[in-house]
Amino acid sequence: MTASRWLSRTAVNGVLLLATCYMLFPLVWLLTAATKDAGGLLAGNAFSFEGFDLGGNLARLAEHHDGVYFRWYLNSLLYAGIGAAACALISVAAGYAFHVYDFRGKEKLFGLVLLGVLVPTTALALPMYLLASEIGIVNTYAAVLLPVLVNPFGVYLSRVLCAAYVPGEALEAARIDGAGEMRVFWSIGLRTVMPGFVTVFLFQFTAVWNNFFLPLVMLSDQKLFPLSLGLYAWNSNAHAEPGYYPLVVTGSLLAVVPLVLAFVSLQRHWKAGLTAGSVK
């Protein structure tokens, strides 16, 4: 190996190592800070394990306000899990329809979908609140669930994947064998672009799990809060009552767990062959 090649490889590995440390630094802080009480956090020694009290923090988290934190946790799982799964299915179905079928105004309608990608979700929060108020679903689970069922970028990505990987020969063969359009989509279209389904699911799951502004606008009942809004409320109280700081930090640590599990458990679908089993 030449000296220049060795130096370039060392430089690249060094940059990657620094980037990894930069990304892991907040997680390491969260792991150590969750073991501290309010005094340890305010003293500025969060990176040490002195005064380890993770079990006590978890117990206080479960007891505070009759365990409302875990009610928020279940709410977040409901919003993110059901919302992301339904959104991914709708996005893949829409992308499949844009690719497979010809109908009047298809490209213009798809242009509107692309326009939706450019609009920030925060700009739509107030109009969605007004619509929700008109139909009477403000301060309900539906007020948060319904808006997250639509993802313009997911529709765009699904159409691109369907155009690249859905085999037209397999669709025609299924139709000749007497399969209906729903059966063709479910057995061939959806299975062929399953990695795309998983990608849209993970994107939407992460977005909904971290969603803050929409629940802030839609919800006033604390029992309906997701974790993001509930922890924000606790953090606002921590300025007056420092005892909330360990609760916020420990709650934030637990809030990371579903995201890590989702990415670790579903990453294998990205590595699977996109058209495996579709054409023999």
Helix percent band: over 70%
N- to C-terminal distance: 45 Å
User: In DSSP terms, counting alpha (H) and pi (I) runs of 4 or more, how many helices?
Assistant: 15
Mean pLDDT: 86
Poorly predicted ranges: 273-280
Apparent shape: globular
Q: Please report the total strand number as a whole number.
A: 0
Strand content: under 5%
SS content category: mainly alpha
Radius of gyration: 24 Å
Major sheet characteristics: none
Written description of the protein model:
The chain is mostly helical and 280 residues long. It is 74% helix and 0% strand. Helix 1 packs across helix 14, helix 11 packs antiparallel against helix 14 and helix 13 runs antiparallel to helix 14. The chain is globular, with a radius of gyration of 24 Å. 28% of the residues are buried.
Summarize the helices and strands and which ones pair or pack.
Elements: H1 3-33, H2 38-42, H3 54-63, H4 68-100, H5 106-118, H6 121-135, H7 141-145, H8 152-165, H9 168-176, H10 181-192, H11 194-209, H12 213-218, H13 227-238, H14 244-266, H15 268-271
Helix pairs in contact: 1-14, 3-14, 4-8, 4-11, 4-13, 5-8, 9-10, 11-14, 13-14
Subcellular location: Cell membrane
Pfam family, one: BPD_transp_1
Protein name: Carbohydrate ABC transporter permease
